[in-house]
Batch of 3 targets.
Target 1
Amino acid sequence: MTTAQGELQDKVAVITGAARGIGAAIAEAYDKEGAIVVVSDIDGEGAERVAKGLSRGSAIQCDVTDEASVQALIDGTVAQHGRVDIAVANAGVGRPMALAEMNLAEWRKVTSVNLDGVFLTIRAAALAMAATGGGSIIGMASITGFKGSALIGDYAAAKAGVINLCKTAATEFRAHNVRVNAMCPTFLDTVLVQEAVPTFEAALGVPFDQIISQKQGRMGQVSDVTPLAVFLASERYRFSTGSAFVVDHGWLASLV
């Protein structure tokens, strides 16, 4: 009797920002599909907790804003498992703030994680993949990368940069069989979003639930986006690269 294999059976996957939220959910989804998952986060203890819940998980602490730390993450994965097949550049931060109130240090705190960190992860992972026959990279963008939004100008600008960066990387690494795509989820029920809700409500003067109901019907769950993360990493998507996939339950589809 044969045992059913998952779509990512024995693939080696690295996920940044995976101690909670979308990253942790993707780690669990990849684990269920048979992948060997390296859980990475600046929160080393959180990464360890997630990794312990996986069948073949391990954790490596990483600060994605530090070039040496990102390189050590990829090098450590290759040293332990021989290669990197999948990389999800997911680490991100955000705090609602009007541009007029934002200083340069606050701007850079968000963009260094959300854009610089994606660049460093993509570059290190793509080079490692190119040396071993290829792989799939996913950059975590957002629907905010397509439209401006009050209070998250730094976050939205970084996510727009991630979308374009993934397209450029897809073109440059295509000859090495390295695919690069962007995922662009809407507002999900994560700690990052819930922490921002009071600030949004105070500034906009309407309940956040009302905005969600009008624009996307209901609050998204991490389980709404993990199937796409599996698909983009799988062989089913092997011929496509350089795309940005929106998962927003219709948010961008209409003006009102």
Target 2
Amino acid sequence: MDYAALDPIAVRTLTNPLIPPSVTTTRPFLAAELGGLNGQGNARSVARLQSVVSHGGAIDGRRFVAESTVERIFQVQADGVDRVLGTPVRFGPG
């Protein structure tokens, strides 16, 4: 990404903090439980997790989330031009 072409607020937002690969590839970082930051998996594990949503909250006879929660995942929470990115975005809780 060419940070020089971005507005200063965008640079501060997208690089705060800027964590280098020399940190993000260490065993302690990978082992840490940092919500919204260091989720990791392979294609199979990501597909398995997403199958909870695509199957209404239950897979293999085990319910992980209520069907009403799955429905809420798709409700639009924000829709418009992002003030940092300057492009239209749409977000929901899922």
Target 3
Amino acid sequence: MQQDSAKRQDVPRRRGRPVQIDAQTREAMVLDAVADLLGHSRLEDVSMAGIARKVGMSKRTLYAIFGSREELLGATFARIGRTIFRPLESRDHARPLCERLRKLLTINPMPQFEQAPLELLRAVVAEAPMYPGIAQQFDAEGRGALIGYITHEIESAADAGEIVLHGMTPFDAAELLADMVMGNALHHLLTPSETKSCDPYEEKCRRRDHAVDIFLHGLQPR
């Protein structure tokens, strides 16, 4: 009996099947890896081979999820845009228009891009002639999505008589406000070495609040 027991203990156990990762989780893992790479590498250095290595899968598997580098980067920028600019929650719609606009225009931080947002934008612009889809996706899912959220709130406020658009369309008014808040990106791209003494986040909040106040003052019913 003891010998039989010892033999059974010596027999190695068979390993079970590896845990299968569902498609949604696998896609999220890939997008996490790309976002991390974008925070530390130049856009032109973010390759499908490097992404596959970082996430621990073969290039063949990666291409089965995303058919091209352009598609993968587009999906990454879409995800980043949805993180930085978020639509209002249902409970926010009861707030005054000024508060709704301020919340929409609050940039939600992503730690991996705190030190390199301009570098990322510069890289996207540089790749635009060769990969126009990446640039279009970057713009549509970032600034474009934000303008869409603002347009909806302005249209609702105009219908309710809170504001008067004075011949502008809701989209034109939303684009004007977004530009007032975000400022001139070209200036920042051309002068990256300029440093400011105040906290960047506080400065952005002050500019946002001033822009919303001036914007709504100009649209008051008369």
